[in-house]
Amino acid sequence: MTQPIIKLKNISYKLENTLILNNISGAIDTGTMTSFIGPSGSGKSTLFRLLNGLKTANSGHIYIQNKSIDTFDPIELRQLVGIVLQEAIMIKGTVYDNLSIPTQLKDETLSEEKAKELLTLVNLDPSILMQDARTLSGGQKQKVSIARTLVNQPTILLLDEITSSLDPVSQKAIESLVKDLHSRLGLTILWITHSIEQAKEVSESIWIMKDGQVIEKSTSHELEQTTNQDVLSFIKGENQ
Which residues form the ABC transporter domain (predicted)? Predict the structure, then answer.
């Protein structure tokens, strides 16, 4: 039986006097792909930043591999839990320079051979390694961003709306790539998306958030049968 790799127990997070996350509990099984959907401001990105150690919950407990997140060294945690953001920011320099950032932070060196392997892994031609990263297309930049996150060989991969600014063809290419990485590397993947159709396409389970709470957890099939009025309202609004 698959064991949870992430467990959330009564997680709440406040920013000043505003409650961003409100008493969230649940578990993510090892090796699964889970989508998080919901209106803007529902707390999805904040939850991901708690999982990556970029923010700290005001109350509750997060466990990763049965270990309290508070006991992880920050660098160790960010190697275990990689995050790819909506905007694939490229620093000034080559693709290699951008791929090297995680190793530089550890005073290590990324070999060109390894860098080329990573490009191949994300369906990019290794010949772009010494190309100016800022000249790449949006889809190429996002693939480089994914490859950069994979440098640390994370077990958990958080994807925060990584296709929202891409054209439809590039979106499909990224979806296909992520599904392939999930299968080949055995990653546990959590994906924030505003698109219910994308969530159904890529994931085994779907968490729906509203106002800092998880209002439904379901499979794609179960979602089609839901009677939850908040969920139905979100689906209706998303399809208009």
Answer: 6-236
Residue 232 has pLDDT above 80, yes or no: no
In a domain, 102, yes or no: no
Given a cut of 80, whether residue 223 has pLDDT beyond it is: no
Domain assignment of residue 118, yes or no = no
Distance of CA 42 to the CA centre of its chain: 16
Residue ranges making up the domain that contains 167? 4-87+158-239
SS (H, E, C) 131-172: CEHHHCCHHHHHHHHHHHHHCCCCCEEEEECCCCCCCHHHHH
User: What contacts 75, CB < 8 A, 6 or more positions away?
Assistant: 105, 106
User: Could you give the number of structural domains in the chain?
Assistant: 1
Whole-structure pTM value: 0.92
pLDDT at 3: 84
Contact 154, 82 (CB under 8 A): yes
Tell me how far apart the alpha carbons of residues 84 and 160 are, in angstroms, rounded to a whole number: 6
Task: Please give the average per-residue pLDDT across 94-106, as a whole number.
Answer: 94
**Is residue 125 a part of any domain in this protein?**
no
Could you tell me if residue 152 is inside a domain?
no
Angle at 117 between CA 64 and CA 193, to 5 degrees: 45
Strands (E), 33-87: 33-37, 59-64, 67-68, 81-84
